[in-house]
Specification:
Blueprint: E1 9-14, H1 21-32, E2 34-38, E3 64-65, H2 78-94, E4 98-102, H3 106-113, E5 116-117, H4 125-132, H5 136-146, H6 148-154, H7 159-172, H8 176-179, E6 181-182, E7 188-194, H9 198-214, H10 217-228, H11 241-248, H12 254-277, E8 282-285, H13 291-299
Parallel strand pairs: 1-4, 1-7, 2-3, 2-4, 7-8
Antiparallel strand pairs: 5-6
Helix pairs in contact: 1-13, 2-3, 4-7, 5-6, 5-7, 9-12, 11-12
């Protein structure tokens, strides 16, 4: 009986925010002839650049995919991400390059490497508008009461993903978390994460937030408010955008907003660490240099 054809290789770089994922992905893509596919639920948005720490295109940088996909006021589902990511990866493979999937959004990564079967529920604009009038805390309480697994995966601040989970439940009659089933693997995936000590990670987060403020994060939020005509969009509930909106509206001072951004980002990093520690496929490395021999051996 003939052996099945080997699966195409996919390099995956995961871990918490500010851990050095992007720099490592770019380094490995240059070293091994790769192109990068983003797995970040915020860098998909056009115009949300500083606050999402969107990678900067420099001369000699590897080609990126799944960056600047939609406007912040446009719907974008997990199923749409999966479809676009798989299309990008297959295109990279056809060009004889190594696809490098990098990001901290666990469901985006899982959609690709676990070939998730995602419920095909189209956006329900009336329901979305109704849910969009609720506060983030109200959405989280509602989701936790009907689908606690999805609530844990989503976290208490991602309004867009909470609305989607509630939408799927309302239309399909089954919890979103129960509908995400794994399919047969599509790739021979090597997942790598950088193990950064917690305090060092927090310091890196705080430095990055301070740099964002120096680089014009507030001006970016003001521009988005003007262009989108609504600070209440789910995309604007993300870390940083929500706090600077509150400062603009006088609900907190700017120093309070900056401190809150750092605090919420620490929380987010802890949730990401918890998510990835459950995935025993991830090879945790203490130094970026250690990744090169690991990838070289895997590619042989």
């Amino acid at each position: 009986m003939p052996r099945p054809a080997p699966l195409p290789k996919l390099l995956v770089i995961v871990g918490p925010t500010a851990s050095g994922k992007t720099a490592l992905a770019e380094r490995l893509a240059r070293r091994f002839g790769g192109e990068i596919v983003s797995a970040d639920s915020r860098t998909i948005y056009k115009g949300m650049d500083i606050g999402t720490a969107k990678p900067r295109r420099k001369t000699g940088s590897p080609r990126y995919h799944l960056i600047d996909v939609v406007r912040p006021d446009q719907p974008f589902t997990l199923a749409e991400y999966q479809r676009r990511a798989l299309r990008a990866i297959r295109g990279i493979l056809r060009r004889g390059k190594l696809p490098v999937l990098v990001g901290g959004t666990g469901l985006y990564v899982s959609a690709v490497i676990d070939n998730l079967e995602i419920p095909a529920v189209p956006p329900q604009e009336k329901l979305r508008a109704e849910l969009g009038r609720k506060s983030v805390s109200e959405l989280y309480a509602l989701l936790a009461s009907v689908d606690p697994i999805s609530a844990r995966r989503t976290g208490p601040h991602n309004a867009r993903r909470m609305i989607r989970a509630l939408e799927v439940l309302a239309i399909g009659g089954e919890r979103f978390s129960a509908q995400l089933r794994k399919g047969p693997p599509l790739f021979d995936a090597l997942a790598i994460g950088l193990a950064v000590p917690r305090e060092a990670l927090y310091r890196a987060i705080d430095r990055r937030v301070d740099r964002m403020m120096r680089e014009g994060f507030m001006a970016e939020v003001l521009r988005l408010r003007k262009g989108l005509n609504s600070p209440e969009l789910p995309a604007m509930s993300g870390i940083g955008y929500a706090e600077l909106n509150a400062a603009i509206e006088g609900r907190m001072t700017l120093p309070e907003a900056v401190a809150r951004i750092k605090f919420r980002t620490h929380q987010y990093a802890r949730r990401q660490i918890t998510w990835w520690k459950r995935d025993h496929r991830v090879k945790w490395l203490k130094r970026a240099d250690s990744a090169i021999p690991v990838v070289r051996k895997w590619r042989m």
